[in-house]
């Protein structure tokens, strides 16, 4: 089977991209031909299909250039004609059996769904966030979750300045949602099956108007090749991921302030990295260390040495790969009870979202356990992902979805 994998990035960047790349490798190992369609970047992995990729639009630089240039960029944000043209050419050169779509909004745009249908290609779409129902794909801004932004014609998003606290950016995001979902109805008309990694995300989409029959609940697979390392006394609490508001880094820092005897290592990069560094220096929090962005062997080593992996998110998480990776390595994971996270962890490993005191209590309990107890928990974590997130089992289920949609 020749499978088109469509996503706006083609290099390790975030959870959605890492899942797409891992899935592409699994499909190739299962004997399928995988063709990527993405945006151009110097960071991209090597592929002969990059000639079909579209130019990357830096949305953060939308205030630069002339009014005319900004208007062109705004139009591309809603309908990317280059993506439409390039995918037509790809169809002329390659016979595609199925298209698996991931995140296409803003950079590729859903206009390509219309082209896929014209070519009679079945369309499967994995949902990585809440963009199917809200202009703000996190549904989180100004320090809170805002479900009202998913209602009606999304006008509360403009009122709330739901995108980067900017009226102009919010208006553009709402215009894109209205055009794609209310006027053209790209997703409703052309996607055959939506794959939801979490029951939570599927239920949330149904709550805001989507038919349940359009969805298939398939939990993400994870790499099971990692070895389990025994816990040692004197380890640390580790966070790895994006350093941004919705990830609850401030909650973690407050918990560290309440837990001066515990060591914390924060791994990653993001828009609030320097801010949180300043906060820890200002408050004299010497038990927190910022490790910056890490990958490969360096990240693996930190994960092995950690006593606890923590995900303190205050937004609605879908099905975090960081938790899956930690569980696969036999780590004890403590996380907020937000979104789909409770589907991954029993209650004793969850704390109340946004409650730093509750987090500090949970960390103290588990950090104080004997290494033998932590090892037992780690084995249970590993056994759970082996049961629910096995890559080969996932591919068999996905192949059935492909076949049914064809």
Overview of the structural elements:
With 406 residues, the protein is α/β, with parallel strands linked by helices. It folds into two domains: 2-221 and 390-405, Glycogen Phosphorylase B (Rossmann fold, 3-Layer(aba) Sandwich), CATH 3.40.50.2000; 237-388, Glycogen Phosphorylase B (Rossmann fold, 3-Layer(aba) Sandwich). The chain is built from 15 helices and 14 strands. The strands form three sheets. A six-stranded parallel beta sheet has the order 2-1-3-4-7-8, sandwiched between helices. The chain has a six-stranded parallel beta sheet with strand order 11-10-9-12-13-14, with helices on both faces. Strands 5-6 form a two-stranded antiparallel ribbon. Strand 9 (237-240), helix 9 and strand 10 form a beta-alpha-beta unit. It is globular and about 60 Å long.
Blueprint of the fold:
Elements: E1 2-6, H1 15-29, E2 33-37, H2 67-78, H3 81-93, E3 98-101, H4 111-118, E4 123-126, E5 140-141, E6 144-145, H5 155-160, H6 167-183, H7 186-190, E7 193-196, H8 199-207, E8 215-217, E9 237-240, H9 249-257, E10 264-267, H10 273-282, E11 288-292, H11 296-305, E12 308-311, H12 321-328, E13 332-336, E14 350-351, H13 356-367, H14 371-388, H15 391-405
Helix pairs in contact: 3-4, 9-13
Relative strand content: 5-15%
Q: Report the biggest beta sheet as strand number plus sense, adding barrel if it closes.
A: 6 strands, parallel
What's the end-to-end separation, in Å? Answer: 11 Å
Overall structural class, as computed from helix and strand content, comes to alpha/beta
How many β-strand stretches? 14
**CATH-assigned fold name of the largest domain:** Rossmann fold
